[in-house]
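Supplementary Text 2. Reproducibility record for the structural model of the 341-residue chain.

All settings were left at their defaults, and a single model was retained for analysis rather than an ensemble. We include the record here because the model underlies the residue-level annotations in Supplementary Table 4.
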Amino acid sequence: MNDIITTMFNKKFMEELFKPQELYSKKALRTVYDRLAHASIMRLNQASMDKLYDLMTMAFKYQVLLCPRPKDILLVTFNHLDAIKDFICDAPGILNQVDETFRQLIEMYGSLSAGEFQLIRQTLLIFFQDMHIRVSIFLKDKVQNSNGRFVLPISGPVPWGTEVPGLIRMFNCKGDEVKRTEFTTGGNYVTPQREGSFELYGDRVLKLGTNMYSVSRPAETHTSGSSKTLASSAKENIVPNPLAKEELNFLARLLGGLEIKKPGGSETGFRLNLFTTDEEEEQAALTRPEELSYKVVNIEATEEPARRAELERILGDLEVAEPCAESCGKGEDLLALMDGL
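Retained model, structure tokens:
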């Protein structure tokens, strides 16, 4: 991890990134991402690299899309850098590289207007607008639809410096308020407690850009009837099926390898029923045409001495005598030959 972060915050690389330039193409971004990921001894195959890149791009798109105000993109970036600093807290040299990048971000973007931040946000969203890759963590949290598009929340804190919607003020030509009208909103909005810190150290308040996997999630949150049925069937599968044992015993009796025991005159075995209930089977038998009736074939699955003797003879012919260990010379067996090389 230290190798990747050192390469990512290399002084020359940062100077090149901070130069005024056109937005990188998707191909150029992917090339830079591959080089950074392979800056250490870690190596990923093509499939893993594709999944990692898709997760990175969709997570950043989600963060940019949900920023309460355009300037909060800078807070998202600061959250990224804060998380990186936690990885390298024991490496002062690399930590200084990250802090220098912090200072450059504050110096370059700290004084931009809201309109300039809106232009940056819109440019980023245009870059990601054709990417609709489904991510499992987003699908589980219900923030992404099955078509890969994100679900925008209609509740929560409003942007800093704005008021909670629900009130319309009317003014006259002199600028005096003459009327107020309230309306019901479709969501539950709240006023943020404070603005996030744009300093080198401080509380960012905004949670976008923090670790998505740090939130504990239940394994399954659905409580529908189908999920309950699946859970109950899973419990039933844990209990051994008595019919399976009877089927194996029946096969053993056919082969003549199991002694038949009939305690108390009860009949062992199993019954094959292709109908849902016995009443349905009886009704089908009554309504069945005579020409479609067939004779019932009874299989005698008892242990007859003649049959058992014949089966023992067949099994005896199938047995292969083990070769004597003393007669096995060097090189006769493949494993022994390989050991001797």
